[in-house]
Amino acid sequence: MSAAPAQGIDRRGLAVTAGTFVLWGVVPVYWHLLKTVPALQIMAHRVIWSALLVVGWLLLRHGGQWLRLIAAQPRALAALALSGVLIAFNWGLYIWAVNAGHVVETSLGYFINPLVNVVLGVLVLHERLRRLQWIAVSCAAAGVAWLTWSAGSPPWIALGLAGSFGLYGLVRKLVAVDPVAGLGLESLYLLLPSLAYVLWAEAGHGGGFSGQWSLGIDLLLVFGGVVTAVPLIGFAYGVRRIPLSVVGLLQYIAPTLQLLLGVWFFREPFDATRALGFGAIWLGLALYAGEGVWRSRRKAPVA
């Protein structure tokens, strides 16, 4: 019997997923355009306008069925409240870091995030690592230790971003909810506090829509909902159509672009000492990704 042809990759899913990571990679430029706005206000507007888009999209596609399905799972309701807090912290820290001149460190956070996921899998889900995976995690830990020693303090921004997004992914993994529907409920949880804060700011406490900033800034705040929602919906679409091993490789597009922007566009320092720490982390990522691709190919079905 002849060997069966290898299963092709959905080109549209591949293009959408890659485009999603490219958008996430260049988004620091967008938030930088809003640097005159306090990070907490940007965060609140981001929640409000993305909530309107995501929930509106869900209602158009599924009516109220998506919410009824989640409401039938009390455990999911509580878990999504927690994941909403985690993603809000992640978004807020990221926006603040970009506009405070720490784009390079934000890229570090998303470089080490996959390996943080591995550690959480071991500690919480009791997953077992293979030898090469342990070596990969050790390389990343050595890189973080080197950056901590050379700077005199841990890279708190990177660790905060990686930790919050890793915990977010863990919570979402433990809840059997459609990704976009889960985002919709998270958005609803965050909507009222964000709306209350924006209304308070507009009532004479530095709000931008009352005329403190230009019309262009106001439009950028509103469009921030699109910048938030569209890549998330695109990711949910693409990740279901291509192998996870391919997603694992594509995810490094975003932090790579962020690093390049931090060095070449925002002119942040990136000396040999910092490069050495990043290099150890990149080595760990290369070992981890390479081991995953090798194993996926070994397990590929043949006739």
UniProtKB/TrEMBL annotation:
<feature type="transmembrane region" description="Helical">
    <location>
        <begin position="76"/>
        <end position="96"/>
    </location>
</feature>
<feature type="transmembrane region" description="Helical">
    <location>
        <begin position="220"/>
        <end position="239"/>
    </location>
</feature>
<feature type="transmembrane region" description="Helical">
    <location>
        <begin position="272"/>
        <end position="290"/>
    </location>
</feature>
<dbReference type="GO" id="GO:0005886">
    <property type="term" value="C:plasma membrane"/>
</dbReference>
<keyword id="KW-0813">Transport</keyword>
<feature type="transmembrane region" description="Helical">
    <location>
        <begin position="108"/>
        <end position="125"/>
    </location>
</feature>
<feature type="transmembrane region" description="Helical">
    <location>
        <begin position="155"/>
        <end position="171"/>
    </location>
</feature>
<dbReference type="InterPro" id="IPR004626">
    <property type="entry name" value="RarD"/>
</dbReference>
<feature type="domain" description="EamA">
    <location>
        <begin position="158"/>
        <end position="288"/>
    </location>
</feature>
<feature type="transmembrane region" description="Helical">
    <location>
        <begin position="183"/>
        <end position="200"/>
    </location>
</feature>
<feature type="transmembrane region" description="Helical">
    <location>
        <begin position="39"/>
        <end position="60"/>
    </location>
</feature>
<protein>
    <submittedName>
        <fullName>Protein RarD</fullName>
    </submittedName>
</protein>
<feature type="domain" description="EamA">
    <location>
        <begin position="13"/>
        <end position="148"/>
    </location>
</feature>
<keyword id="KW-1003">Cell membrane</keyword>
<feature type="transmembrane region" description="Helical">
    <location>
        <begin position="12"/>
        <end position="33"/>
    </location>
</feature>
<keyword id="KW-0472">Membrane</keyword>
<dbReference type="InterPro" id="IPR037185">
    <property type="entry name" value="EmrE-like"/>
</dbReference>
<dbReference type="InterPro" id="IPR000620">
    <property type="entry name" value="EamA_dom"/>
</dbReference>
<keyword id="KW-0812">Transmembrane</keyword>
<dbReference type="Pfam" id="PF00892">
    <property type="entry name" value="EamA"/>
</dbReference>
<comment type="similarity">
    <text>Belongs to the EamA transporter family.</text>
</comment>
<keyword id="KW-1133">Transmembrane helix</keyword>
<feature type="transmembrane region" description="Helical">
    <location>
        <begin position="132"/>
        <end position="149"/>
    </location>
</feature>
<feature type="transmembrane region" description="Helical">
    <location>
        <begin position="246"/>
        <end position="266"/>
    </location>
</feature>
